[in-house]
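Per reviewer request, we include the raw input and output of the structure prediction for the construct analysed in the revised manuscript.
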Amino acid sequence: MAVRPTDHWRTGVAEEARALAAGQLGPDEAFMSRLFPDSLLRRTDEVLAAFETELGALDVASEAPSDARLLGAVRRVVLALNAVNEEHGGAGYETDERERLCDYIDTALTEAGVDLDALTARHGLGRHGITDEWRDW
């Protein structure tokens, strides 16, 4: 199963908290909890859970959902992530976070049985361009 980026971010926050508590890191050196507040993590997880549910409802192996349905799912997750980013001052997702989110979407689609190379080629996109049309983050 695709690992949510929030799992990685939570691990970083927890590791930083342990280092702070152990005196291995000073408060002025701590940044993870500021970069990844609970509200960002919680809302991102809500969005990704909805995407996972939508992908789970698509029976790619037997149904062969239309490109419109597949791209609709991508559009919805990207627009929802745009909203989360805006809720956090437009700075919720920086470069590393954007890459992790895009990789997650790619992996989730692939694990759902979507031939992402074929899907994107049919629409004149590179494999990694599937989110570009809607993505503000």
